[in-house]
Design goal:
229 residues, alpha/beta, Rossmann fold, Arc Repressor Mutant, subunit A, 2 domains, 5-stranded parallel beta sheet, 4-stranded antiparallel beta sheet, 8 helices, elongated
Length: 229
């Protein structure tokens, strides 16, 4: 199955869902740990250091959003949120916290497995290039980004989108192309993903996010990385 027993943490307060998820993921070759609430999730995460977290949002006490914020405080481990809450604002809010993906319950297991493979591929992908754009330097071998010599902390999905723009610097990439390359072909109808990540990148990288110098929007087409000065 090709996963080399990759460790996955599944967090949900429904015992039936946890049991079914563990059974299905184990059958697919993953090593599965579980947690029934946010506090337990943090403890298991620290003990097991999983390659991927599958995270429910609505839990008593410490909810999924708090867990997501805690993990993103010091780790780039991919997080896929699994929730019954499926509005655009819910998805944008959790992506803004640093989650890599969002799947609305109920979902098909085959779709979850495809999303898992996609985020794990992104986490492992390395490119041996260095791109300089004005005061920005993107070292895609070290997966490190700096602005005016200062390291900028990016989430895995933020870095993946920036690296795609960087390796095509000056070229306009459509939202659909970015969705296919960064998230996967199954995401081509989800432009909100690109908008949220571009917004976050501009907040971290641009001298004036309201007037972007580096990540420029081409209206009705997509985005390109350039130095407009």
């Amino acid at each position: 199955m090709g996963h080399a027993r990759q460790p996955v943490l599944v967090v949900d307060d429904d015992p039936g869902i946890l049991s079914a998820m563990k059974q299905n993921l184990t059958a697919e070759g993953y090593q599965v740990d579980t947690a029934t609430n946010g506090l337990e999730a943090i403890e298991v995460f620290e003990d097991s250091a999983p390659d991927l977290v599958l995270l429910d949002l609505t839990m008593p006490g410490c909810d999924g959003e708090e867990v997501c914020k805690y993990i993103r405080g010091y780790s780039s481990t991919p997080i896929i949120v699994l929730s019954v809450r499926g509005s655009e604002s819910d998805i944008a809010s959790v992506l803004d916290l640093g989650a890599d993906d969002y799947l609305v319950k109920p979902f098909r297991m085959v779709e979850l497995l495809a999303r898992m493979r996609a985020v794990l591929r992104r986490a492992e992908r390395q490119r041996a290039n260095r791109v300089i754009c004005g005061e920005l330097e993107i070292d895609t071998e070290k997966r490190q980004v700096s602005r005016a010599g200062q390291i900028v902390s990016l989430t895995p999905i933020e870095y993946a989108l920036l690296a795609e723009l960087a390796t095509n610097m000056g070229r306009v990439l459509t939202s659909q192309l970015l969705l296919r390359r960064v998230w996967g072909a199954e995401y081509v109808d989800s432009p909100v993903y690109v908008k949220v990540i571009v917004y976050r990148l501009r907040a971290k990288l641009e001298p004036d996010p309201a007037h972007p110098r580096y990540i420029v929007t081409e209206p009705h087409i997509g985005y390109r990385l350039t130095d407009t000065i």
